[in-house]
């Protein structure tokens, strides 16, 4: 199998699997219990919190574990807005993950005014637009660090600089950035930041929210006083232990992985470019997570390519995994100005830690034939 959908999810690192399986076998205590088997689990959770904090340049007390990246996004946005009830405006971008966009729609229904920052053809947000809509009515700005579909990296430092002038806190969804570029909350000076375990070779169903010390936020899930009273519910202990281990491994090797995988992605990109006519690459040429290779073939349906590749056990994605079930073209590709029929032909290949040179060789061997075959039977032949 050749797995080229690492932006959708990553395989569990064997060391993470090992640690989790040890934990599940040896520990069942409730970390809130005061006797030893509970305290031991509590100590292990503290260690995992330290590992995630260290990987982000944060303090341990600033990391809250949640049930997913989606939950962290929801908590950050709704929690920050509820902490400033007199401010009724929220700013985000047009190309956020549904975890943010659908939260924004929910807020609109609750009477909030939401401003969606437009993006240019590379997916970079319009900072002038931000300047024009931000005001003392704004409760929060939330702009993702790197886009999951096209990989474009936003100018977060500049966004934060603008927001600071108005005293507005900033949240960023760093789910796709974490592990693929430096994500340091101190350098970014961001107030709230979301990450997710299953994108960094950890288990699914566990995320974290960085809350900068002093940031006003209202709890989202009510109950016991777990997670410093900010997220109730008995912890997903094995998931958190796995997330901590994944973050520890990440810190050791992300730079080396990045170097190797970016070369491999470049080989994939230039190979596709050479062999397939009229290919369009999406995303910023430089300010991008380079291991995300998103491209369109005018005149072809992405799904047909995806299925043809799947018969060869090569797994890729159309647009983003979350939009795969809907017929609509990706909102990200439409926002960067692609026509719907071109957006519907887009494929995303995303490389990860376990990809090897042979994986890319195989894709480059299979793609030209698949595309030629599908082109021959396609009724739509675009002008190029
Ligand atoms: C940018 C971004 N934000 C949020 C999420 C949601 O994370 P989770 O799957 O942990 O809910 C994803 C997952 O695809 C993502 O890519």
Q: Could you write a compact summary of the structure shown?
A:
By secondary structure, this protein is of the alpha/beta class.
CATH architecture of the largest domain: 3-Layer(aba) Sandwich
Low-confidence stretches: none
Return the domain count: 2
Strand order of the largest sheet: 2-8-7-6-5-3-4
Ligands bound to this protein structure: pyridoxal-5'-phosphate
Number of helices: 12
User: Tell me, what is the CATH class of the largest domain?
Assistant: Alpha Beta
General description of the model:
It is a single chain. The protein has 384 residues and is α/β, with parallel strands linked by helices. It folds into two domains: 2-8 and 254-377, Alpha-Beta Complex (Aspartate Aminotransferase, domain 1); 14-249, Type I PLP-dependent aspartate aminotransferase-like (Major domain) (Aspartate Aminotransferase, domain 2, 3-Layer(aba) Sandwich). It is 42% helix and 14% strand. Strand 5 (138-142), helix 6 and strand 6 (170-173) form a beta-alpha-beta unit. The longest helix is centred in the middle third of the chain and has 39 residues, at 237-275. The structure holds pyridoxal-5'-phosphate. Pyridoxal-5'-phosphate binds next to helix 3. Pyridoxal-5'-phosphate is lined by residues 68-70, 73, 97, 99, 144, 148, 173, 175-176, 196, 198, 207.
